[in-house]
Amino acid sequence: MFSRHAFRCAQPLRQSVRQYSSEAPKGKSLAPVYVAVGLAGLGAGIYRYNSGVAAVAEAPKELPKVFTGGDQGWVDLKLSNIEILSHNTKRLRFDFPEKDSVSGLQIASALLTKYTPPDGGKPVIRPYTPTSDEDQPGYLELVVKRYPNGPMSEHIHNMNVDQRLNFKGPLPKYPWEANKHNHICLVAGGTGITPMFQLAREIFKNPEDKTKVTLVFGNVAEEDILLKREFEDLENTYPQRFKAFYVLDNPPKGWTGGKGHITKELLKTVLPEPKSENIKVFVCGPPGLYKAISGPKVSPKDQGELTGILNELGYDKDQVYKF
User: Taking the first listed entry, what is the main subcellular location of this protein, grouped into a coarse class (predicted)?
Assistant: First the structure.
């Protein structure tokens, strides 16, 4: 899970220096002083040598990667833990074969999942973006919402601990590096939030990355807002750099966020101007959201034309990326 990052400056340790007389007592030999100084110097030399050896020995090593892409093929992972997040959403942990391995995913990228129905029908393959940190050794986590007649989501929700699922990847998406853009905007619906979370987490865990982030997240009901606690942690920790706006089709009584669908008026209000320097708008969600906000992408390698609300507001194709 994502955890709040707090950066504190370590206070320098106060060192007390014992004062020694600069003049030896009269009539006494200076030999003991020389011996003491020599031993102290020898001790300091040994300490410096040993510290250097320790520093070399403790240098971090690169952990092996589970997913290497290319011709690797499918990797079979065992389900080790299930956490119920809502009436239709679970967080599932899948263990790596080796506890000191990491996923091998970069930002931003996803994985394919596959299972073959018991009747021997055509294998079901769907992409998912893990919500666990890419540097997390030993396992990955998926947050999966169960959709009616969704063959993969239903299969995953029916899995029990110790059952296994096939994964393949990584599938590179939008390559990120610190401060690539001054301000990014994440427009998401439903489970389209997972690649947005992956990107936001990477930005805020890097103290060198000063990118501003605005999230607009649409859902049916309040209980459908995935990863809300994690985003609230970000908003509380980085109030000057992260803002989140939630929109619900069926809001509860007393709801202070947006109501209905993500509208042109809302995006015009909360997103930076299209003429702003070095911005990027990311879109991810169900087909209806793509159609309304940006238009669909043609294929993983073809973003398609920019249409919908973002086009009407004056953004150009190069300012928008469709996950």
Answer: mitochondrion
Q: Identify the pLDDT of residue 315.
A: 98
Return the CATH number of 183-322, one of 3.20.20.80, 3.40.50.80, 3.40.640.10, 3.30.530.20.
3.40.50.80
Burial (Cβ within 10 Å: 0-12, 13-18, ≥19) of residue 92: buried
Percent of the chain whose predicted confidence (pLDDT) is above 90: 78
How are beta strands 109-115 and 164-172 bridged, if at all?
antiparallel
- CB contact at 8 A, 78 and 162: yes
pLDDT in tens, 23-43: 344 444 444 444 444 444 444
Per the CB < 8 A criterion, the answer to whether 202 and 173 are in contact is: no
H or E element in which residue 135 lies:
none
Structural contact between residues 110 and 143, judged by C-beta atoms closer than 8 angstroms: no
Is there a common fold for 75-172 and 183-322? Answer: no
CA nearest to 156, candidates 209, 105, 114: 114
pLDDT digits (tens, 9 = 90+) for 115-162: 999 888 899 999 999 999 999 999 999 999 999 889 999 999 999 999
Ranges of each domain in the chain: 75-172, 183-322
Q: How many Å apart are CA 109 and CA 175, to the nearest integer? A: 8
